[in-house]
Every structure is written in structure tokens, then in C-alpha cells.
Amino acid sequence: MNFNYHNDEALESIARKVISKYDPALLHKPSQIPIEDIMEKAYGLTLEFQYIRKNGSILGETIFEDAQIPIYEHGNDKGYKLIYVKAGTVIIDASLLRERSSGRLRFTCAHELAHWVIDRNYFIQIGETANFSSPATDAEFADDFLGYDILCQKIGPHKPMHTNAVRSSDTNDAIERQANRMASRILMPKCTLKQAFYDARKYTANIVTHLATFYGVSKQAMQIQLEEAGLLA
């Protein structure tokens, strides 16, 4: 089954609808998008913070149907355990709680919300969760999932642990890139970004850093969004 591809114009339109569902005023004045509130209050999603993988290779996971999923028991030698989660739960890796200022937490939340909004039917039909991964070496990845695979074997054929556990290496790159593109448009809507850019240009030369802090995103994400909006040469 193929996922629905959206061009940049369509993603911008969808992102605006996502924001408007929570508060249309956010599209008229530059402000930091309250992504966690949008997820919980506008879309009824439940945010949970767990250590998803031992090596931190998975930053977020969205559950589309009731399931048992493996999480890593951080701080002890027990390895992985199963927890039951309901559909509409978004698991964010707990390590990101230490990095709120970096923008990774907010971007991960927006990425998972993008999956919920535009990819939900696709993932339900193929029976998988949506994972947002961070770079990891092959050795780290293999070592991490040794314990995960052992857990799968212990469960046995009569105790399904998941709709289907998708590993980051198996995730369709095109789907992940699209979720990233939409996440950027949710956190940095062009309709307010342009106003914020021209206002900031009046009193600061370091526009990228200033706007990244203002919108609560990384400098890299802001740089890319400004370039795509045609605001940086």
C-alpha cells in the first residue's frame, strides 16, 4: 500500500488547519506554537515519556491501535518490558526531557502529530506504529535490538505484543521526510515566519539564532525553513 504524498503547498495548508483547530490567532501573529497542547487538547492524543530504546535510536512512537509495546527500563538491568497503550498515545523518548531548549523535543512531537494527521490510515492498514529515529551506528542498532528480539521470543505466538513493531531501519524514508516537512510547517508557519523575519531584521543581525529561540526550534530547522521560504539568500 502506498502512502499519500502531499506537495509543499498541500502540507502548508494542512499545517494551518492543524494550528487553526487549536487557535486560529496563532496564524496571525508570530508566536511559539504550543505543540504539546495542540496534540492533547485539539487532537485528544496522550503524551507519555518513556525510554523507547536503550541506545536512543527512536525518539518518538505513535500508536494507532491499542497495543502492547516494548520500552526500555532505564536505570536497571532488566532490559525491555511490555506496556499496554491505547490508540492515540504518543510515546516520546524520556531523554528529550533533558533537552527542551534544543528544539528536538518540540520537533519530535510535531513529527509524530504529522504522522497522526496525514499517515494514520496508512499505518493502520499496514499494522505498524510510526517511529521517529535518530542516527545510530549499525553496531549500536544491532546490540540494542538483541534484547528487543529476545523479548519478542519470550512473548510467544499466543501473546501478540504489537500490531507490528517497525524498526527505524525499515521505516519508509519518504514517509519520514514528509512528516519532517509538515512538522516544520506546524512549528514555523510561513504566514507568521515572514513577519517575524522582517521584524527581527530591524534589530538583530543573527536572525537565524533569534528566530530559532523565538519559535523553540533548532537553528538548523530554522535555517532550512527560512531558505525554503525564500527569506535567506
Question: Could you please describe the fold and organization of this structure?
Answer:
This protein is α+β, with helices and mostly antiparallel strands and 233 residues long. The chain has two domains: 180 residues, no CATH class; 45 residues. A four-stranded mixed β-sheet has the order 1-5-2-6. A hairpin with a 7-residue loop joins strand 3 and strand 4. The longest helix has 18 residues. About 12% of the residues have low confidence.
Present the secondary structure layout.
Layout: H1 8-22, H2 35-42, E1 46-50, E2 58-63, E3 67-72, E4 80-85, E5 89-93, H3 104-118, H4 120-126, E6 130-133, H5 138-155, H6 173-187, H7 190-200, H8 207-215, H9 219-228
Parallel strand pairs: 1-5
Antiparallel strand pairs: 2-5, 2-6, 3-4
Helix pairs in contact: 1-2, 1-6, 3-6, 8-9
> In terms of structural class, how would the helical and strand content be classed?
alpha+beta
Put simply, the count of helices is 9
Strand order of the largest sheet: 1-5-2-6
| Unreliable parts | 136-145, 155-171
Shape: globular
Portion of residues in beta strands equals 5-15%
What do the pLDDT scores average to? 84
Distance from N terminus to C terminus (CA atoms, Å) equals 39 Å
How helix-rich are the residues, as a percent range? 40-55%
The domain count comes to 2
User: What string gives the helices and strands in order?
Assistant: HHEEEEEHHEHHHHH
- How many strand elements? 6
Radius of gyration, taken over Cα atoms and rounded to an integer in Å: 19 Å
Quick overview of this protein structure:
The protein is an alpha+beta fold and 233 residues long.
